[in-house]
Specification:
This protein has 95 residues and is mostly helical. It is 78% helix and 0% strand. It contains three helices and no strands.
Amino acid sequence: MNAGVMMAVTIASYTPPSAVTTPLDRVLGYIAWLVTAAGVAGLMIVGSRMAIALKTGDAEEHLREYLIVMGACVIAACAGPLVQFVGLDFWNTSG
């Protein structure tokens, strides 16, 4: 049997131990919540700066800041599904 095929069969049948995946899933869950909180906080900060600039009459450009925060939120939200689409979810033990 070809070594590459043998390696692919070995990798496909490998399931990581739950002693490793359970804490890793917990840490990834915490990181996901932190990223969500950072996105909400970023939008609130940009919105506050826009409101203050409007009240004081300053003509500042906040669209760039808003787009940067929204871009980061989109990247964070799409990271998991993007990895699954590419097929790199090797830690998935569901099947």
